[in-house]
Amino acid sequence: MAPASKADKKAALDVAAWLFNIVTSVGIIMVNKALMATHGFSFATTLTGLHFATTTLMALVLRWLGYIQASHLPLPDLIKFVLFANLSIVGMNVSLMWNSVGFYQIAKLCMIPVSCLLEVLFDKIHYSRGTKLSIMVVLAGVAVCTVNDVSVNTKGLIAAVIAVWSTALQQYYVHFLQRKYSLGSFNLLGHTAPVQAASLLILGPFIDFWLTKKRVDAFDYNITAVYFLILSCTIAVGTNLSQFICIGRFTAVSFQVIGHMKTILVLILGFFLFGKEGLNLHVVLGMILAIIGMIWYGNASSKPGGKERRNYSTISEKSHKDGLLSESRELDDKV
């Protein structure tokens, strides 16, 4: 009974982590859509800096209350992570500006095969045929839902390549750093969020002016806009934390695959909240195909040989790493 109950507990925590990520991610997208589309706050990079500043404040409060213990992250690893993360944010914004919506969505879909490649190269992960096919089904379904007109230009292609690789490296690095240094999700956020907040709040206004030709200090900060700004920053704490928890518990590839459920939910909520324009048969079929692929991926990757390392370390080393990982997840489970 003990192994079964332990497995049941892990499954329940896994589901809770995914639901936490989906709810906060979909919520922040809806709030940001209202903030940017309705109230005209188009300063995405600066907004992300405010998100990390709020996350930093929350981490400081939790550390003061004793929920976060002191930990160490070497400066070179911290700098590399922040570089990947900031390149991801700026790259995605520039890619959206320079590319059509269709090509932007295709570029986002490319993050899954890139994440797979990183796991194959660095973690020696082997994927079964069923797992590979399920990923292809997910990509096909999401592509049918989101990809419309596709036009490509040189500078847009370069921006998309930078955005895809930096995002994939950032998400891989989350899992890598948690595993290497036995860091819980909020411990890692406590190290990275302040540096990201400082760098994005300094560079963000200049980048946003370059992208939008508008100054963030000239925006009309009325009561409604400020309310949505505060709400966006509050939800962002959960979004950042849930992303680190999910990637720490799973992998960047699994996070990307099942994370496309957020895309489907955003589409559905968008149709209900912002009008049903664009809702047609092929979009509905694409949603169904993507959901089938996600369920298939969950089953295929969990089977023996579905997704496993080719070269295992010695038993003692593996047991040691497993022990460190279980300790690093205790705070995540409590949160």
TrEMBL record:
Residues 305-335 have a biased composition (Basic and acidic residues). Keywords: Membrane, Transmembrane, Transmembrane helix. The chain crosses the membrane at residues 12-31, 43-66, 78-96, 133-150, 156-174, 186-207, 219-241, 253-275, 281-300. Residues 302-335 are annotated as: Disordered. It is found in: Membrane. One of its GO terms (cellular component) is membrane. Its main location: membrane. Residues 23-297 form the Sugar phosphate transporter domain. It is a multi-pass membrane protein. It holds the Pfam family TPT. It comes from the Eukaryota. This is Sugar phosphate transporter domain-containing protein.
